[in-house]
Amino acid sequence: MPPTKEVHIYPDGDMILEVTDGVEQRHFTVVSHILCIASPVFRAMLGRHSSFRERREFEMQDESLLFVLELPEEESVEAMEIMLNAIHLQNDKVPTIINFDKLVQIAVICDKYDMSKAVHPQVSFWMQQNERLALLDNYEDWLFISWVFRRSKTFESLSKKMILHIQGDDSGTWKLATPTRNIQGHIPESVADSILKICEDCFQERLRSPFMPPLCKFSNPAVRPACDTMMLGALVRLFHNNSLLPSQKMGIKNEPILELASIIREMENLITDVVRATVEPYGCSFGSDGSTSPQYDTSEWDYNPCIYHGTEEDCFGPSTHKQCSFLIPLLDNLKKIEDGVSGLKLSEFPSRV
């Protein structure tokens, strides 16, 4: 049993809140009517018209003793004391500066008891001190804070960051790629589910984008089938080596949206080495940078214009033909997927209570 500390939030209070965080236990002397005004949850338990057991026990309590309401274990008895002092207008006992972890604990209490409106002035001041941290690594709980205290801009920006950086592992756990911090925790289930759904949709779109034919930009029938085959084979190998394809036992390892383009860039040499063996015998030099340059008499070929250089102008020479590499449109397509991601709208996720 943790040691108990008596704290008189309001010395003439009519009840005691018994709160523990697993390390310390405190008995807070409070006013039941103030609790009911500040919190719909306490009002449901203790309000004059409540049919809950707590209200009946409160009314039956011996007048010589204060009714004791034992609350479920909290994350911090200190955060609860701050909240109780705030709603009882004990402003001289309410800190003007709190750190990020304490703000998270206060958000948890506000969420549980629906008290955010009652402490809006204090919370707004505390949030201004900490909101600059919202988009930094290891401060992802700001998504929960912004949801509880209805900060739409921060909620949208941070949810977009999480969508772009989140990844899944073989056990089905989703977490941020950098840092390795589980995103579940305090985040409401509806918010987490929406983030994961967008991630899964983007992941499936990324899986489709590299395999949209044709890969080869040449119309020579002797080159295109073999080139397509080798390019596709290189891509399959690339995705398989990076656990980006489904397997019978392990499922899909979901890389962060922002990571796939980096993986492909790092593997360019693998792809170009595989493709070079097929392309060069037909008179096309394939550079290590992913570029291709025709080395044949183009008048004898039905050569398609470069998709990047318009339909009228043929794309010749290593300086311009670089962008005819299939890697460029592939990376561009991935970039379009990334750019198409937007954050969640706070208005679609009402408070839990």
Write the layout of secondary structure elements.
Elements: E1 4-8, E2 15-20, E3 25-30, H1 32-38, H2 40-46, H3 53-60, E4 67-70, H4 77-87, H5 100-113, H6 120-130, H7 142-148, H8 152-165, E5 166-168, E6 174-176, H9 189-208, H10 224-241, H11 257-266, H12 268-279, E7 284-286, E8 292-294, H13 318-321, H14 327-339
Parallel strand pairs: 1-3, 2-4
Antiparallel strand pairs: 2-3, 5-6, 7-8
Taking strands numbered 1, 2, ... along the chain, how are they ordered across the largest sheet? 1-3-2-4
Computed structural class: alpha/beta
Kindly provide the radius of gyration, computed on alpha-carbon positions and rounded to a whole number of angstroms: 30 Å
The major sheet is characterized as: 4 strands, mixed
SSE string, helix = H, strand = E?
Answer: EEEHHHEHHHHHEEHHHHEEHH
Low-confidence stretches: 177-182, 247-253, 277-284, 294-324
The number of distinct β-strands equals: 8
Our count of helices gives 14
Q: Which of globular, elongated, flat, extended, rod-shaped describes the shape?
A: elongated
N-C termini distance: 31 Å
Summarize model confidence as the mean pLDDT. Answer: 75
Helix content estimate: 40-55%
Strand content: 5-15%
